[in-house]
Write a structure and sequence with these properties.
The protein is of the alpha/beta class and about 300 residues long. The chain folds into 2 domains: about 35-120; about 130-300, no CATH class. The protein is about 50% helix and about 5% strand. It is built from 10 helices and 5 strands; from the N terminus they run ααααββαβαββαααα. The protein has a 5-stranded mixed sheet. Helix 1 (about 35-50) packs parallel to helix 6, helix 3 (about 85-95) packs antiparallel against helix 4 (about 105-120) and helix 9 (about 245-265) packs antiparallel against helix 10. It is elongated and about 70 Å long.
């Protein structure tokens, strides 16, 4: 993830963040998951991880079956809606299958079935409009996806979310991973399991306007925001290149990759140099310590 001009606030294990706004998804026709549903999904996800990763003294047998059932009853509870009932039923069906070592694989398959029910309800699992033009509604940006795929050396989709959908996908991700990403601070993140890069639509639009030889905006804050958007994309691509690297090392790699990314987007060389200078001078110094190596990133030093 990239903190960008705002400081990223992500704390594992925190409570579910906020509600989800109105009842409809602007990127799809289905109803949004409610805060109550997301709370239940968070509990189910924690339970399923515990069962799947169980390496205790009794990974199967009577104790495992009772622990499985007890966790569902006390920690997860009844699903708050009919559309989550199939997930609850699949999870319940997993517990008896923990009775023997030879049926544990089947138990894990049932847990996967429960996960599939939940994931199918997430906004990020839906197709977005394919376009490389600035837009007001959520889209998959084909130009940004192409350069991200080239940099990551695997097919990657860059998903650009409008404000309402941005909050929704972050709340869903919080529930699924038991995180607490703040939609007001977070500017981008990479999902290596689904080969998605998530960005705010405003940043995608800024990059669309300077790509292919477009001029920088006259407003200084918009110039800085454009620089931040370019570095955010470079940062998220680097997570695919170096999946085990920490955020500080990813940030340094992204700074090094910014000129290559700008060339791939056919951003004029003068514009590219100005964007990098703006990021180094006005964004990088204010990043959280998590994103900065001790002594500073060599790529963030001003040129001689």
């Amino acid at each position: 993830m990239n903190a960008g001009a705002a400081v990223l606030a992500v704390a594992l294990g925190a409570a579910l963040v906020g509600g989800c706004g109105d009842d409809r998804n602007s990127a799809g026709d289905g109803e949004r998951l409610t805060s109550t549903e997301l709370g239940w999904i968070r509990a189910l996800s924690a339970w399923s991880i515990d069962i799947s990763d169980d390496e205790g003294e009794h990974p199967f047998g009577a104790a495992a079956v009772e622990s499985c059932r007890g966790g569902l009853e006390s920690d997860v509870g009844e699903p708050p809606s009919d559309r989550l009932r199939p997930a609850a039923d699949a999870a319940t069906a997993a517990c008896p299958l923990l009775a023997e070592q030879g049926t544990r694989r089947r138990a894990l398959d049932r847990i996967d079935d429960a996960d599939d029910v939940v994931l199918a309800l997430f906004l990020d699992r839906r197709d977005l409009e394919l376009s490389d033009a600035p837009s007001e509604t959520s889209r998959t940006d084909t130009r940004l996806s192409a350069v991200a795929s080239e940099g990551a050396e695997r097919p990657v989709e860059v998903r650009c979310w409008d404000d309402d959908d941005w909050r929704t996908v972050i709340y869903e991700d919080n529930a699924w991973n038991d995180d607490s990403g703040d939609p007001d601070d977070l500017v981008g993140w990479s999902d290596l399991d689904w080969d998605h890069v998530h960005m705010r639509i405003a940043d995608c639009n800024r990059l669309s306007r300077v790509a292919g030889g477009g001029a920088l905006p006259g407003d200084h804050e918009e110039r800085v925001a454009t620089a931040d958007g370019l570095e955010t994309l470079a940062h998220e691509i680097q997570h695919f290149v170096e999946p085990d690297a920490d955020e500080a090392d990813i940030e340094c790699a992204a700074l090094e990759a910014m000129p290559r990314l700008a060339r791939a987007l056919r951003i004029d060389s003068g514009v590219s140099s100005e964007l990098r200078r703006l990021y180094v001078d006005e964004v990088y110094p204010d990043l959280d310590d998590e994103y900065r190596v001790e002594g500073g990133c060599t790529q963030a030093q001003p040129p001689m």
